[in-house]
Amino acid sequence: MSEVFATTGTIAAIATAVVPQQGSVGIVRVSGSQAMALAQTLFHAPGRQVWETHRILYGYIHHPQTLQLVDEALLLIMKAPRSYTREDVVEFHCHGGIMAVQQVLQLCLENGARLAQPGEFTLRAFLNGRLDLTQAEGIADLVGAKSPQAAQTALAGLQGKLAHPIRQLRANCLDILAEIEARIDFEEDLPPLDDKAIISEIEKIAAEIIRLLATKDKGELLRTGLKVAIVGRPNVGKSSLLNAWSQSDRAIVTDLPGTTRDVVESQLVVGGIPVQVLDTAGIRETTDRVEKIGVERSRRAANAADLVLLTIDASAGWTEGDGEIYEQVQHRPLILVINKIDLVEEIERKILESQIQVALEAHQGCDTKSKIFTAAAQNQGIDALETAILEIVKAEKVQAADMDLAINQRQAAALTQAKISLEQVQATIAQQLPLDFWTIDLRGAIQALGEITGEEVTESVLDRIFSKFCIGK
């Protein structure tokens, strides 16, 4: 392996989040051939407790030279190969906080272990055959999941639901390659190759690859979430909308225009999708230096958002300022939020709808499906807003029906390369080139599919994948 992952020796790391004065338990994980010896050096288990695999011992951690007591703790023993890394693994379950776990980790490092690199525990699990690459990436996705749906999709990857179809596709390609190479080596002893059957099989493989590629957008959505910017003129109810939606008081709400001077964020989950909501400063021309900075940040937030909620004041109707803001954001996926609808009568609402229709047609951007009515101060219209968001996500972001699978960018790149290689095989067959030429691109497809599960992978790929993990995983 590269210098980034020198996967030899015994490694140690803190395996739990360390928060000052918080957390009841902190875990220091040790893996490698000297893990048991190190545990026996540092840990004293009173009485007749048995040191055997998959047992938890109660006792004390002492400094081996000074015998100073460091912590009262539990010791979990997992001997190879029945462990996460398939090496001997011990875990010191200490008191939470900072000092206890850091002192225990320091003792481990002073007595033969070295500090683990980011992702090194999982890398060892991969190198020792405990996991394939899709399962390893599933672990990273599970740790970083921002919603229940993201966690379920990560678990599906961890359980091999992505690896299984990939391995089957690769096996099918290998079968085709064997058929072709047999004709090359033993042409006189075997019947002629059935070109149509080969083409049919390649088309089936390519169709399955296309199906898997269709999950990429959903995967990105679940991993990174949807960034939604609430924009509009000052005092149209943007902050009230954020507070009603998030059921909190994240944003200051007053009757004074220009109260919000900076972008306020809130994290939500809509239909299983993590959503980062940005409440922005009201957009208008101003001479106030501070407000001007806020307005510029609002424009940047709108341009960087996956979805824009253009909010207008129903009681004020569609104004010239609304039209100017619409001109700036209409190129983004957009929902028009008509707020403060509780302040207008029914007949006024109908007039307002016609007014907005005419205004949007003038801007060549009318889309009646992306208009909703809210009364944020009264907590009304939030369900309709979430439904509209999910409809846009379904139309523009997520095309896959299979919610158990969601490939990432690396996997998508490899699948795309496999698809291109198979297309080149089909072109080679159509041109009636010799069988040797068929095998070149077929091997390329096999290589690309192998990179997804790790059956064929380079050190640079491993470095890129595992360096994104936390140190204790």
Question: Gist?
Answer:
The chain has helices spanning 35-42, 99-110, 120-127, 133-143, 148-158, 163-185, 195-213, 216-224, 238-246, 289-304, 320-329, 346-362, 382-396, 409-430, 435-453, 459-466, and strands at 11-14, 25-31, 43-44, 55-62, 69-78, 89-95, 114-115, 226-232, 264-270, 273-279, 307-313, 334-339, 371-373. The chain is of the alpha/beta class and 473 residues long. The relative contact order is 0.13.
Average pLDDT metric: 84
In angstroms, what separates the terminal alpha carbons?
18 Å
Low-confidence stretches: 1-5, 256-261, 397-403
Percentage of helical residues?
Answer: 40-55%
Supply the number of helical segments: 16
Please count the beta strands (DSSP E, at least 2 residues each): 13
Order of helices and strands: EEHEEEEHEHHHHHHEHEEHEHEHEHHHH
Rg (C-alpha, Å)? 30 Å
Sum up the overall morphology in one term. flat
Strand order of the biggest β-sheet: 3-4-5-6-2-1-7
Indicate the structural class: alpha/beta
Q: How would you sum up the major sheet?
A: 7 strands, mixed
> What fraction of the residues are assigned to beta strands by DSSP?
15-25%
